[in-house]
Write a structure and sequence with these properties.
This protein starts with a helix and ends in a 16-residue tail after the last helix. It has 12 helices and 15 strands. Helix 1 (about 5-15) packs antiparallel against helix 12 (about 380-395) and helix 5 (about 95-110) crosses helix 6. It is α/β, with parallel strands linked by helices and about 400 residues long. The strands form 4 sheets. It has a 7-stranded mixed β-sheet, sandwiched between helices.
């Protein structure tokens, strides 16, 4: 059984330990929710000040020619290095849901000539992904269907399937899918692969080009720590870019946006995935976070992530049999968060937050704990696991105040 002293020794040897100082973390808090919202990078306020005071304040509308116009592509190229994409294949824009709408529509358009109007999505996908995929398919006369992926394997695919939306890491269970294998299976049957990277980017290596993924989307406010409301990103494989049509067509995606022409002609490059004016101020937080990633080896992050998740599960399961571990413990099938199931998960999470251990609850009965190796120590994880066990053993969660549901869980 690992001890706290063992964890102190691991922290002393951790080559990533110094990165913790790059973030603002409240004293007395063990933050295990980077899989939902990352903490504030210490350099972020200076980046926001640069945009607001030095650029907007000093240059007014001149900021567009100074730096703002190229923000979506400049940031996209920086994210490309984290997800195994080439320069010019990624652009930062809009929200994850809006970007998914764009690529689902684009995939249907790509497949229209083959008569494939059916869109698949993995059963249990993040709800907004299901809503978006289904509504876009209906809007163009198609339909959507749920696919049960069991032990990482696709089921028999229905006729007429044109594209499938998959989550690289499942938001609820933390299960990691084999992107290369599943993309190949889909391509072998003439189906396009759309990947949601929201729970993997910034926590583990992603290899979109090597896996020959067609489209991908993801957010920047989880493991990328860009802040609430930060813009998302969208990837298009270079071989598909020239034939990718996006809905809606907006002026920032126009080949000549400032010609102010009444007819639309899509840009020749990744800018065709834009729609309207970029969120310039919100982009500042992403710059701050990517500065940290620029000097960090993502493979090292993955090694530490796996070690932290394994440590947490080892301590919890050795001391308590009251919970089921939902997340696969096979390293090749595990993302960077651990999900535990307990019939009283909600009050347990509330009691833990009162003790400074921040996780979250997902209906109907699971609690999630994210392990961001940029700022978590081994001692943090050990102490958090001990707190989980103590809250359950002591029945601290039975306090009536923890039973009241808050608006955001």
């Amino acid at each position: 059984m690992v001890t706290r002293d063992d964890c102190i020794a691991l922290d002393a040897e951790d080559e990533l330990a110094s990165l913790r100082t790059a973030f603002t973390l409240p004293p007395g808090t063990i933050y295990l929710l980077g899989n939902s919202l990352g903490p504030l990078p210490r350099s972020a306020p200076a980046h926001f000040q640069r945009v607001v005071q030095d650029e907007w304040g000093a240059h007014l509308i001149g900021g567009w020619n100074l730096s703002w116009y190229d923000e979506p592509t400049r940031l996209g190229d920086r994210i490309a290095t984290l997800i195994g994409a080439r320069p010019g294949e990624v652009v930062v824009a809009d929200s994850t849901s809006i970007n998914l709408m764009k690529v689902v529509y684009a995939a249907i358009e790509q497949q229209r000539a083959t008569g494939r109007s059916l869109v698949g999505y993995e059963a249990g996908l993040f709800p907004t992904d299901i809503y978006v995929a289904s509504s876009v398919a209906r809007s163009v006369g198609g339909s959507a269907v749920a696919l049960d992926i069991v032990e990482g394997e696709l089921p028999d695919l229905p006729d007429g399937l044109g594209a499938v939306v998959l989550s690289h890491v499942d938001y609820r269970s933390g299960r990691l899918l084999d992107m290369r294998a599943l993309t190949k299976q889909l391509h072998d049957q003439g189906v396009l692969a759309i990947w949601d990277l929201s729970h993997s980017v910034g926590a583990l290596p992603v290899h979109l080009d090597d896996c020959d993924a067609d489209y991908a989307i993801g957010c920047t406010y989880k493991y990328l720590n860009a802040g609430p409301g930060a813009p998302a990103f969208v990837f298009v494989r270079d071989r598909l870019l020239s034939t990718t049509r996006v809905l809606p067509e907006g002026w920032f995606a126009h080949r000549e946006p400032f010609a102010m022409l009444p007819s639309f002609t899509a840009s020749d490059d990744i800018r065709r995935l834009l729609v309207g004016t970029p969120s310039v101020v919100a982009c500042a937080g992403l710059h701050a976070s990517l500065d940290i990633f620029d000097s960090t080896d993502i493979e090292q992050l993955r090694v530490k992530s796996l070690a932290l998740t394994e440590l947490f599960v080892e301590v919890v399961t050795a001391a308590s049999s009251d919970m089921d571990v939902v997340t696969p413990m096979d390293p090749d099938a595990r993302g960077s968060h651990i999900t535990l199931r307990h019939e009283s998960s909600y009050p347990i999470v509330r009691a833990l937050i009162d003790r400074g251990v921040v996780g979250d609850f997902r209906a109907p009965d699971v609690m999630r704990f994210g392990f961001a190796p940029l700022y978590l120590s081994y001692v943090d994880v050990y102490d958090a696991a001990v707190a989980v066990v103590d809250v359950i053993r002591s029945d601290a969660w039975r306090d009536p105040r923890y039973a009241t549901r808050e608006s955001v869980t």
